[in-house]
Amino acid sequence: MLEFTEQGIYCPQADLYIDPWQPVKRAVITHGHGDHARWGMGCYLCHRHTAPILRLRLGPEIAVQVLDYGESFTANGVRISLHPAGHIVGSAQVRLEYAGEIWVVSGDYKLADDGVCTPYEPVRCHHFVTESTFGLPIYRFPRMEAVFSEINTWWAQNASEGMNTVLLGYALGKSQTLLRHLDVALGPVFLHGAVANVNAALIADGYRFPGEYLSPETNLQKRRGYAVVAPPSALGSPWLKKLMPYRVAMCSGWMQLRGARRRKGVDRGFVLSDHADWEQLNRAVTATGAEHVYVTHGYERPFARWLHERYGLRASEVHLQGAAAEEDEP
Amino acid sequence: MKLFTELFVAIDRTTKTNDKVAAIVDYLRLTDDRSKLYAIALLIGNRPKRPVRTADLKRWAADMGGIPQWLFEESYHIVGDLAEAIALMLPPGTSAVDYPLPSVIEELATLPELNDEKKEEIITNYWRHLGKDERFVFTKLITGNFRMGVSRQLVIKALAVYLDIDEAAVAHRLMGKWLPAKETMATLFAEPERGIRDFQPYPFYLAYQLEGAPELLGDIAEWYIEKKLDGIRGQIIVRNGQLFVWSRGEDLLTDKFPEFGPLKDVLPDGTVIDGEIIPWRAGQPLPFQVMQTRIGRKALSPKILREAPLAMVCFDLLEWKGQDIREMPMQYRRNLLETLLSSTAIPDVLLLSDLMPFNHWGEVEIFRQRARDFRCEGVMLKRKDSAYGSGRRKGQWWKWKTNPLTVDGVLIYAQSGHGRRANLYTDYTFAVWGDDGTLVPFAKAYSGLTDKEIAELDGWIKRHTLERFGPVRSVEPYHVFEIAFEGIQESSRHKSGVALRFPRILRWRRDKKAGEANTRADLQQLLDAM
C-alpha cells in the first residue's frame, strides 16, 4: 500500500505522502521536527498539537487540517488515523488501512513516558515502518527519572558553587521535557528565544512550562545559580557569554557514548532522548505483530538484519533521502 | 573499585587540569594505602599486561549480552573503544560488591595461567556484579589500553600536594618499573637508602621546539649547540656494580643492548649518563630504521649485532660518584662528562656529543636547514649555566628541528578513530599518482587537522563513500593534503616502495585538485636525494 519514493513515503491509493521532503499536494506530518515537516506542501495533515508548531516554523499561511489521536478519515477507500508516538508534543504514528491490510508509519517515537506528550501506544499492523536512530545494543538508556534527578543534583551543586547551569536540548521536544522535570525550587529558570517561542506556540493547547524568556534586556548581573534551557546551537555562540560563570551540559541520546560526550566539549552529558533506545525499539516492533518491517533513519542495516535473525521478520532497510545522520537528533 | 571508578569518571568529565589534580588528591585522601599504590601505577601508565585474548573477551560479552557476534562488532566500530562497547552491551549489572582495586589487579595477573573456561568464569562474574562505569573501568584494565586522561605531570602535582613534598622528588621516585605489590607508600616515596633503588633513573629533561627567532635567546656564546640525533633517548646507570639502561619511555632496555654490558666494570659506581642511543658505524650514525630492525627482537643474533651496532652519544652527566649533580650548571656537568669519557678505558660504545662551533645564529640556521645532509634532524640548544630540569620546561633547553619533507597526497581511505575520535573518520590513507595513472597509497596519518576540519571531512567522507571494508571506507579521490615527514626509506613491504618516518598532515590543500598531487616518481626523487 505504501511506496518509498523520491519525494517520500507515498500512498498511491489515497494519493498522499507521509513526511515528504519535496513539495507535494497532500502531506501527512508525523511531527513538527524540521526533517519531517518541510516547507511547500499544498496541504498539511497532522495532529491537533502539531499544527501550532507547523505555523510557527513554516508560516501562518499554510493550509493545515488537524486530527485527534484515534480519529480517522477516509481517502479513496483508505482509512487513515493518527496514534500517539510519544516522541514530542503532537507526534503521531500514521495508521493506514485498505482492503484488510494495515500499515503503520511510526515516524520518530519513544516508549518511555516523558511527562509532556501523550505516551506511545502500540498499534497492531501487518507492515510497520520504524526509525532506528538508536538501533544498536550499545544504546540502552537509563530510566528518565534517574536522569532528571541527576540533572537536578548537578544544578544544585553548580548553584552551591555560585555557577549557573546551561542545559542544551533541542528547542522542540527536549526542552519541554527538561522544563517539566527541572526542580524550580532550586532557582530561577531562563529560556533561550527558540525555546520560548515553542513554549508560547503550545500555550493555546494548554501546555504550560516554567521559565522566563531571556531577552537582551534581562538583567542577570546580580543573579547566580539559575538554570538556562537552550538549543544545542547555542554552544560556542557569543550569546552564552552573558551567562558566565556557567557549566554547560548536553542532553541527548548521543551522550551515551564517551567519545561523543568528549567531542562536544561540554562539562556534562546527560543521556536524555526523544527516541526509542535499543530495548524500546525491540519492544515496539514486536508489539505491532507486523510481519513486514521497514527500517529507516539510523542504523537501518544492522537493525533490519537483527530483526530478521532474531524474530524471523521480513525486515528491510529503507534509505530515505531526507534522513541525514544528524547529531542533534531532532 | 568504586572509589577508583569515581576518580576515573571525575577525571574523564573535566578538561580543566586543576579539577583533575583536585580529583586525584581527593581520591588519595579517601582510599587506603595499598589501593593508592595500585592507582598511582595505573595513573602513570604502569598497567597490567593484557591477560586474555581480545577475541575471547568479545565472545563472552556478546554471549552475555544475548547478541550475535556480527552485531557486537558493528556496535564496537561505532563506539571505537572495546571496553566501553562491552560495558554498554552487557545486560544491567547489580553493582552490589565493592572489590578492592589491588585484589582485582592481582587476580587479573593470575589469569594467563588459567584455562579459558576459568578465565571466562572469573571475568563474567565481575561483569555481573559491577555497575556500568565500574564495568567500563574494569574492562579497560583487561583490554590493556588503559589511559586515565591525566599526564604524568598532573599525577606528580597531585602527589606533591597530598604528600607535601617537592614535585621533582615525586617525579624521581616514580621513575622506572616499580611494582605496587612490592612497595608501600613509605618505601616508594621516602628518600631512598643507597642500594635499595639502584635501578631508578632520573626524570628526563625535555626540550621544547624553538618557535621564534634564535636571536631572542641572546648571546650565542652562552649556549651549547649540539646535533639532534635520531635515536632513542636513554640513561645509562652504573650503581653498585650493576648496569641499567633506560629509555625515555621508561623501558628497561639493558638486555636489548649487550654492547653496554662491559660498562658496569668500567664506569665508576654511582654514574648516570644521559644521551642518545643510536646505530653507529665508522664514525657515522646509521638510519633509524637500522635500530628498528633490532629493537623489536627477542633474541639478538650475532648477525643483527654486526649489522646494527649501537652506541650512546653522551650529552650529560646526572650523577657522579653517587652524587646527584643535576642542579650544577651544564658547563660543570659537561666538563666532568668529557673527563670521564676521555679517560682511557672507556669502550668505544660511549661517544661524546660534539659541540658545534658556531659563532652566529645565522650559521646555526644554515646548518639546521641542511641538517639531513649531516645525518641529524636539527640542533639542540642548551644554556651553559642550565641545571638539569625535570620534565618539559621552557627556557633553558630548546630543540630546533629542520623543516620536514613534504608531499601532496590524495585522500583515498578513511577509518574511524578511537576514544575522543570514536565514530568520526579520523585515520586517513593518502596516495600519490603512479606511472600508470593509478593511485598508490604511500602514507597513513591521523594527526594534524583541527577538530573543525575533522568534522567537516568526516561529513564529506560519509557522503562520498565508494566502498566499505569493515571500519574502513574508500572515498572518491578528491581532497589533497600536504603530508609532512621526517625521513624516507626504501621499503619492500609497502606498495609505494617507500616507508616514511612520522608522517602527519601539515595542511589541507583546498587549492589543489586530486590531479595536482605528487607522483610516485617524486617520492623516488626524494629517496634518491637522501
Description:
The complex is a heterodimer of chains A (330) and B (530). With 330 residues, chain A is α/β, with parallel strands linked by helices. Chain A has 2 domains: 3-139 and 275-317, Metallo-beta-lactamase, Chain A (4-Layer Sandwich); 144-270, 3-Layer(aba) Sandwich (Rossmann fold), CATH 3.40.50. Chain A contains 7 helices and 19 strands. In chain A, the strands form 3 sheets. Chain A has a 7-stranded mixed β-sheet with strand order 7-8-9-10-11-18-19. A 6-stranded mixed β-sheet of chain A has the order 1-2-3-4-5-6, with no helix packed on it. Chain B has 530 residues and is an alpha+beta fold. In chain B, the strands form 5 sheets. In chain B, strands 4, 5, 6, 7, 8, 9 and 10 form a 7-stranded mixed β-sheet that branches. In chain B, strand 6 (271-281) and strand 7 form a beta hairpin. The radius of gyration of chain B is 26 Å and the shape is globular. The mean pLDDT of chain B is 89. The chains are: A alpha/beta (330), B alpha+beta (530). Chain B: Its EC number is 6.5.1.1. Chain B: Residues 303-434 form the ATP-dependent DNA ligase family profile domain.
Rounded radius of gyration of chain B (Å): 26 Å
End-to-end separation of chain B: 54 Å
The secondary structure category of chain A is alpha/beta
Give the spatial strand order of the biggest sheet of chain A.
7-8-9-10-11-18-19
Order of helices and strands of chain A: EEEEEHEEEEEEHEHEHEEEHEHEHE
In total, the number of strands of chain A is 19
Largest interface: A-B, 21 and 29 residues
CATH class of the largest domain in chain A: Alpha Beta
CATH architecture grouping of the largest domain in chain A: 4-Layer Sandwich
Major sheet details of chain B: 7 strands, mixed
Low-confidence stretches of chain B: none
Question: Could you please say which CATH topology of the largest domain in chain B applies here?
Answer: D-amino Acid Aminotransferase, Chain A, domain 1
Q: What's the rounded overall pLDDT mean of chain B?
A: 89
Report the biggest beta sheet of chain A as strand number plus sense, adding barrel if it closes.
7 strands, mixed
What is the tally of helical segments of chain B? 19
For CATH, the homologous superfamily of the largest domain in chain A is named as Ribonuclease Z/Hydroxyacylglutathione hydrolase-like
Q: Average pLDDT across residues of chain A? A: 93
Distance between the termini of chain A: 28 Å
Q: What is the top-level CATH class of the largest domain in chain B?
A: Alpha Beta
Classify the oligomer. heterodimer
Enzyme class (chain B): ligase
EC number (chain B): 6.5.1.1
Keywords (chain B): ATP-binding, Cell cycle, Cell division, DNA damage, DNA recombination, DNA repair, DNA replication, Ligase, Metal-binding, Nucleotide-binding
Domain ATP-dependent DNA ligase family profile (chain B): 303-434
